[in-house]
């Protein structure tokens, strides 16, 4: 899943890495390559600001995948059937995989995965606001697949053409897998909608809670988005936050109809003149408060990640030590 | 936090017999055996491969991007190395 126009400003503690030496000739070559729609590869010269933007965006994206395993992981042991449990396990495993593809892409920019991960654990790095909402019922699992992954796909498809090669290739791989995530969610909801009135109510309730956070995933309005313009110039971002959000809303209305639920926005209606759906005002205060650590689950999410990291430390160390001893033994034998 | 990082391995996957192993990303692992295991879980969850290579990233020797012109440009004007350089009579041009 889950970039959210993910280049949220990160005031304290940008991840470090080698500083790039600015050079006018290289800059001209870089600009020409970008203008021609070409790709920049790991060892190529790039402006420091380009590199930093990528490290921030790719690592925030990776963190989102890893934190995103938590709300869904919450339901693995309580999935209502073996089939749904197998599907959910596969999906959560994919999220972990997506995080790893992305950390690998970020590492090509000269930062280490552990260094990036530390920034997440000590609260310096951001991740998608969407994962700070709780998953209260089984219907939430379906709605996350349908709306949250649906929004993520809208965001991520243009990233497959991002100018930075390693990021773009990771995104191609991720997008191939996302479609399964969205479809399994919708399928789960369809099945619940054929169930009892209580089950249908559960679906509607989950949609009511997740709709607004989902459309916030596209990030601030274009006029308030501080990184968008340079990111567009550099081919890191291809479509603006507002355009993506509109595309998502337009695509979702029909899906909601087929499902038989109501999207919780009284202002949502077709605008013939614009050829798009109009929708109501977004509560940006809630968005920023969630991004900045005051959402419903921020504290729990980071606590869970820290616990896993700290309790796994001895395993990581023992494995390294085992490898060191094995290597020493082989050397003696040889 | 003290960092004890697992080394980085580059992962190459052969998608099916008859094709080359192709680079697909990297993983962290303490040794080769675990690197293969992790690569299998990370890069082949949907039958993307029939064979995996892992190579320590530090063991890879790569050409210098700055040397790109002198390494690769000389081939540019050797168009006679391509079959299309030769125009043959129509009757035999499928050669």
UniProtKB/TrEMBL annotation, chain A:
Task: Enumerate the InterPro entries for this protein.
Answer: Aromatic_CoA_ox/epox (IPR052703), Ferritin-like (IPR012347), Ferritin-like_SF (IPR009078), PaaA (IPR011881), PaaA_PaaC (IPR007814)
Any one GO biological process: phenylacetate catabolic process
| Cited Pfam families | PaaA_PaaC
What sections of the sequence does the record tag as coiled-coil?
A: none
- Drop me one GO molecular function for this one: phenylacetyl-CoA 1,2-epoxidase activity
Q: Name one GO cellular component term.
A: cytosol
Output the NCBIfam families linked to this UniProt entry.
Answer: PA_CoA_Oxy1
What name is this protein filed under?
Answer: 1,2-phenylacetyl-CoA epoxidase subunit A
From TrEMBL, chain B:
One Pfam annotation reads PaaB
Q: What is this protein called?
A: 1,2-phenylacetyl-CoA epoxidase subunit B
Query: Which species is the source of this protein?
Result: Pseudothauera lacus
């Amino acid at each position: 899943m889950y970039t959210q126009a993910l280049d949220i400003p990160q005031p304290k503690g940008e991840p470090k890495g080698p500083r790039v030496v600015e050079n006018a000739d290289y800059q001209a070559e870089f600009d020409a390559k970008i203008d021609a729609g070409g790709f920049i590869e790991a060892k190529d010269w790039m402006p420091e600001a380009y590199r930093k933007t990528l490290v921030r965006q790719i690592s925030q994206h990776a963190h989102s995948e890893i934190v995103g395993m938590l709300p869904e992981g919450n339901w693995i042991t309580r999935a209502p059937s073996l089939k749904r449990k197998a599907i959910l396990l596969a999906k959560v495993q994919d999220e972990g995989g997506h995080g790893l593809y992305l950390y690998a892409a970020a590492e090509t920019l000269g930062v280490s995965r552990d260094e990036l991960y530390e920034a997440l654990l000590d609260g310096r790095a951001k991740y998608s606001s969407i994962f700070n909402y709780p998953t209260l019922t089984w219907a939430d699992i379906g709605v996350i697949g349908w709306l949250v992954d649906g929004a993520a796909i809208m965001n991520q498809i243009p990233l497959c053409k991002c100018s930075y090669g390693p990021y773009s290739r990771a995104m191609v791989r991720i997008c191939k897998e996302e479609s399964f995530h969205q479809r399994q969610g919708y399928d789960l909801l369809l099945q619940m909608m054929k169930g009892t009135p209580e089950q249908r109510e559960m679906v509607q309730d989950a949609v009511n809670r997740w709709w607004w956070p989902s459309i916030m995933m596209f990030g601030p309005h274009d006029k308030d988005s501080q990184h968008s313009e340079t990111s567009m110039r550099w081919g890191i971002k291809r479509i603006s936050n507002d355009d993506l959000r509109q595309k998502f809303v337009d695509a979702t209305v029909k899906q909601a109809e087929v499902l038989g639920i109501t999207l919780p926005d009284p202002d949502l209606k077709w605008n013939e003149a614009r050829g798009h759906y109009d929708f109501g005002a977004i509560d940006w205060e809630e968005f920023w408060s969630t991004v900045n650590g005051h959402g419903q689950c921020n504290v729990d999410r980071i606590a869970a990640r820290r616990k896993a990291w700290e309790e796994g430390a001895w395993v990581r160390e023992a494995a390294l030590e085992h490898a060191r001893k094995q290597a020493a033994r082989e050397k003696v034998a040889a | 936090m003290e960092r004890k990082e697992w080394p980085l391995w580059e992962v190459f996957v052969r998608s099916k017999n008859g094709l080359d192993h192709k680079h697909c990303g990297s993983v962290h692992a303490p040794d080769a055996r675990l690197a293969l295991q992790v690569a299998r879980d990370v890069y082949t969850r949907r039958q993307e491969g029939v064979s995996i290579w892992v190579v320590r990233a530090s063991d890879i020797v790569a050409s210098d991007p700055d040397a790109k012109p002198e390494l690769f440009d000389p081939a540019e004007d050797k168009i006679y190395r391509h079959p299309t350089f030769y125009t043959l009579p129509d009757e035999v041009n499928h050669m």
